[in-house]
Design a protein that fits this description.
- The protein is α/β, with parallel strands linked by helices.
- It has two domains: 9-83, no CATH class; 88-147, 2-Layer Sandwich (Signal recognition particle alu RNA binding heterodimer, srp9/1), CATH 3.30.720.
- It has helices spanning 19-30, 97-106, 144-147, and strands at 11-16, 38-46, 52-61, 67-72, 89-94, 111-117, 120-129, 135-140.
- The two termini are 23 Å apart.
Length: 155
């Protein structure tokens, strides 16, 4: 059976408890610029059981690609925060891994794990995790050529 391929993704959605605080933190950590916040008092939905719902909705998107979408948590709905996230990380290239890793740690986004070579660390990459539960992966741009096969169709 053949399936139609989806177009390249255009955003990553993240449910957050406090949209304004999440915007501020991600702006500080990553320099993200946000578009307008859209709040609707009532939006029509249908759940998987066929039940019709009217729920408030508050979202915003980053203005640059790849886009991040922040979704205000709505208890009792599909938009709830939990201790386990399906979002593992958001990856970024780094021209200075050590400096960027130090700055992320200093901004309240401590390192979780990183590459090492003997006693040297971080090397190659570092995962940092913020209080929103989102991992930020920084990858040394020196790895770009070595990894290029991963970004080609049929690799």
């Amino acid at each position: 059976m053949s399936t139609r391929a989806l177009s390249p993704h255009y955003h990553v959605g993240i449910v957050v408890r406090d949209l304004a605080a999440a915007q501020a933190q991600l702006t500080e950590l990553l320099g993200i610029t946000w578009g307008s916040v859209m709040h609707l008092d009532g939006t029509d939905y249908r759940d998987s059981s066929g039940r019709d719902l009217v729920l408030p909705t508050t979202i915003c998107y980053s203005v640059d690609e790849p886009r991040l979408e922040l979704i205000q948590e709505l208890p009792g709905s599909v938009w709830v925060c939990n201790e386990h996230s399906n979002l593992h990380h958001i990856g970024f290239w780094s021209d200075d891994l050590i400096v960027d890793s130090t700055e992320l740690t200093g901004a309240g986004c401590p390192m979780q794990i990183c590459g090492r070579a003997g006693d040297a660390a971080p090397t190659s990459f570092a995962y940092h995790r913020n209080e929103l539960g989102v991992r930020i992966e920084i990858v040394d741009t020196a790895m770009r050529d070595a990894m290029s096969f991963l970004f080609s169709a049929g690799g």
